[in-house]
Structure prediction request, 456 residues.
Amino acid sequence: MAQKPSIPKGTRDFNPEDVAKRNYIFNTIKSQFEIFGFQPIETPSFENSDTLMGKYGEEGDRLIFKILNSGDFLNKVNQELYASKDSNKITSSISEKALRYDLTVPFARYVVQHQNEIDFPFKRYQIQPVWRADRPQKGRFREFYQCDADVVGSNSLWQEVEFVQLYDAVFTALGLKGVIIKINNRKILSGIAEVIGAQDKLIDFTVALDKLDKIGEEKVKTEMLEKGIPQSGIDKLQPLFSLEGDFGSQIKELKSILNTSEEGEKGIEELEFINQGVETLGLKTAKLQLDVTLARGLNYYTGAIFEVSAPEGVNMGSIGGGGRYDDLTGIFGLKDMSGVGISFGLDRIALVLEELNLFPETISNTVKVLFINFGDAEAMASMKAVKQLRAHGIPAELFPDNKKTIKQFNYANKRNIPYVVLLGESEMNANTFTLKNMITGDQDSLSFDAMLNVLK
Prediction:
């Protein structure tokens, strides 16, 4: 007996209704990207390994899917290296390419490679799948789409203000109210590390701090101790773990903590500018909230850091995030190219919209009218009408087989097709169409033009 086929963990099949819902989100986000002046690009699904490795921190590097070289790759490995059985060292000899982990690093590579063709500042958006060798769980997959918008070639903090506005516009258009846009600044994290005497352990410090919501205060402190951060420094962090209040009161507390750090004070100034701009312009449905424990654990952020949380009461991780990465293109040889960008977590957004029942009811109605098949002569007359309706932009189709009428009606119901046309011998003789509304049950005998007006 043949083994039942399956798909890898962390991946999914999507039925027509799922795809329709995803396309609804894609189209909503895409329309807002373009309203805000962003241009589309696409990059390959896989990159050279050296493009990706070392850009996401130690934890991120472990989650990158490597692609084995073609041919007899093991035969080309140095025998001494092969005998060592050190997978980390062998990997570079047998794998020269990897699936992209996100869209930001490939974008930085794109900017450097095409810098002579780009007009700066360059505003791009990109909607493509990414892959991560993560442990699958609710809202976390190994293959998923990201929807990114970035600006490179501008140091202006007005870009951060605009990205907050963009988040608000997208979630307002999706009908998702109460979204929290969390913000922090990498310079503040650097300042805190400086104050507690952990400048040389900034990455270890931020990776641990970023886990606060997941593992709690005590386990974060334990991890910091294990990474060599002194207890005296961790004690100085205590006010951060309980920092509360509005944006202004948290900034005031931060100023007292970071008054000896020039870097930290610069981060505070940047946050104040962004907050003032957002407050003046206003937000429709989202809320901007300062979160000084937000780190996102990635090496390339240098300024503002964003993370978006679903509305209160929805059990879901972040549904978006991003930040400023002033020196990212420098990794590929292009210095002094400032960038800032945000990402939308499409799959998690879909789960949130599903849970809150926010998808439009008509989203999966791909066909508006189905013609019942009564035989070849009637089918030919129906196909002529179907062709005319399609020419007017009406999605229409003929049931392909001359089956019992009840089976054809059941098919229309299962596919949520709102209208059915009965074109039998009597209708053909009278040059009319019997149009049945599958929702109300009403039906009328109409001319083609009258039927077209109803369907429009």
